[in-house]
Amino acid sequence: MLANRRITWIAAGLAALALAGCGKQEPVTATTAPAPPATARVLVVGTDAAYTPFESQNEKGEIAGFDIDVVKAIAGKAGFEVKFVNTPWEGIFNALDQGDRDLLVSAITITGERRQTMDFSKPYFEAKQLIAVRRDAQVATFDDVKAMKVGVQNGTTGDEVVGKLQGKSSGNIKRFESTPLALKELEAGGVQAVVADNGVVEHYLANNPGGGFKTVSDAAFPVEQYGIAVKKGNAELLARINKGLDDIKADGSYDKIYAAHFGSAPK
Ligand code: ARG
């Protein structure tokens, strides 16, 4: 392969010489092609696709959801191509740092701690934690789950708030690999509450009307902002993403995507 390429270049060089010899004023072409810019290749987007309606994977293996549509629209505006790769939440930030993923979209809350190790786009979605409990549970505020077994997705902001309430090392915090697994455990009775992002909890309840669950919100939960993450220092890609995000907000495509997934335009 390498040898072949070398032969091709030698041939090209000879051809150029021959042309020069013929007295034609053709410029001699460079013998080494410059490295393509990062955006000339398909960018790999990591997403933990077990987070409906933000990202999920269907039977055919296709990844779809609100986040996916947002990134596709941004890529369309910014002129780069993307490919989505299902990436478990637990290794997702590491995959970005190692360069195995170029960007991440995964309903990722922008936090001060995460900002230390990666860079975030401007916020593209607002969220809050929401508690899911059995309909007959005596839970009116977050404080009421203090002594309960609570399911969370490991390493999420839900894990963080419950850790603050109960103490990080509380044996009552059950940490799951994915949010659906935590919700399954609530169904099975292994935990008495689940704390996760409102959009996902609401979607789950709407699709399990017979599940016997209710949600409890608490004004004390901080407002969270989702951002698209890039490797720390990748200012070039970040600028493109931010510009693309501005563009899809300005031309109405963001609102269309929002309405398609959440039924109404954002407030
Ligand atoms: N917003 C929460 C966080 O950043 C949960 C995100 C989980 N996303 C996912 N695709 N599983 O911690």
Automatic annotation (TrEMBL):
SMART domains (UniProt xref): PBPb, PBPe
Domain Ionotropic glutamate receptor C-terminal residue range list: 42-264
Solute-binding protein family 3/N-terminal domain sequence ranges: 42-265
Record-linked InterPro entries: Iontro_rcpt_C (IPR001320), Solute-binding_3/MltF_N (IPR001638)
One annotated Gene Ontology cellular component of this protein: membrane
Signal peptide boundaries: 1-20
A Pfam cross-reference name: SBP_bac_3
PROSITE patterns listed in its UniProt record: PROKAR_LIPOPROTEIN
Domain of life of the native organism: Bacteria
Keyword field: Signal
Sample GO molecular function, one term: ligand-gated monoatomic ion channel activity
Residue ranges crossing the lipid bilayer per the database entry: none
UniProt name for this protein: Transporter substrate-binding domain-containing protein
Taxonomic source organism: Variovorax paradoxus
